[in-house]
Amino acid sequence: MIDRNESPEALAQVANVPIELSRLVFAAAGCSEGVALLRSPGRGEILVGQRHAVAWAARDYLGATYEQIGRAINRDHSVVVRGYNVARRMRKTDPEFRELSNALARTVAGRTVARTAHRRPRREAAA
């Protein structure tokens, strides 16, 4: 049996999510014990904030679906949708949360291109 909290590769395989998303979960949690806590039923303020930050970074920087994020953090997709929306609001008002979510975004940005970068249409030069 594979221990899903052992490594990003194990989590990606067991939860059926992209490896980049698993790496993001491990970056947020810090270690395998932290991943177990992040994926636990716990509702502490710090854990919930970490989950919201993961949802925001995974959605905006990886383009992950709500279902994928939910499988990675052991939550239903509807909980992830709410967490993502809360994270967007918190980024505007909470400097500590903004720094946490920016740090996660930086870990992703080093490996991938931001989702919005490939969605912007190129402007054609005027002839």
UniProtKB/TrEMBL annotation:
Q: Which SUPFAM superfamilies match?
A: TrpR-like
UniProt-listed InterPro entries: DnaA_C, Trp_repressor/repl_initiator
Chain ranges of the Chromosomal replication initiator DnaA C-terminal domain:
17-87
Report the domain of life of the source organism.
Answer: Bacteria
| Protein's UniProt name | Chromosomal replication initiator DnaA C-terminal domain-containing protein
UniProt organism field: Sphingomonas rustica
